[in-house]
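Section 5.1 Outputs to date
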Amino acid sequence: MKIKKAVIPVAGKGTRFLPATKQIPKEMIPIIDKPMIHYAVQEAVDSGIEQIIFVTSSGKTSIEDYFDRNMELEGFLEKNGKENYRSLIENIGKMTEVLTVRQKEQLGLGHAILCAKELIGDETFAVILGDDLVIDSNPVTKQLIECSQRNDNGSVIGVMEVPPSDTNKYGIVDGQYVEENKTLKMDRMVEKPEPKDAPTNLATPGRYILSPKIFKILEEIPKGVGGEYQLTDAINILAKEDKVFAHIFEGDRFDTGSIKGYLEATVEFALRREEYSDVMKDILKRKVKEHGL
């Protein structure tokens, strides 16, 4: 079964990045020379996804515009002999098909995904949280798609190992291993348990392959923690009714929704790019020396 659609919720206010996000969507803040959202969409495209559905809110139109063609800019670059830049801009506009749906109230991740129901239809789909970036030669969404295909096209939650002391920062999964050291048949997910109460140290940072059965559940669940419709609650019900797996993915994850994670990602992405690696190393060495670290 080919998974062709991915939902990327981008309706949040990005308050941790104020005042920048007063006018600019958090997802459009750049890491090096590309906005955060570019990396999430590139992951989807590299995983075989053909259609991106952004769940947006007021003030987010620049995200959709970024993935559209800009003929005026392309013409300007061509006229001024900047063919490399013109080609780069054109390719961004051709990356994938983009659709948007408005989340008029921010009522939780579960509600955001439910907003995409009519555009998803009766298809299994991916969910990618755009402020959780993962670097790996094999895109993490592709890893989850492959896991789903190996396990009867079941839903798959991407998980990573975290220090036991950090379990209260994530949803933590519990289950029985069906693939050695990698994949569990999921029994439940516990939202932000204290270390003493955590069933495992396998955390969910924001990658999912979900059956369309999730929509009916999302329509029926009551509001949960924080007065929002929690995806965790819906997945727990889905795990009782259908096959849901948790897969430990490969890759380095960065929480670019926080300033700390954003700074870490900026340094790491620069170090991994040939044209910027030496520059970043020189900056780091100089600053360490200047600050006596």
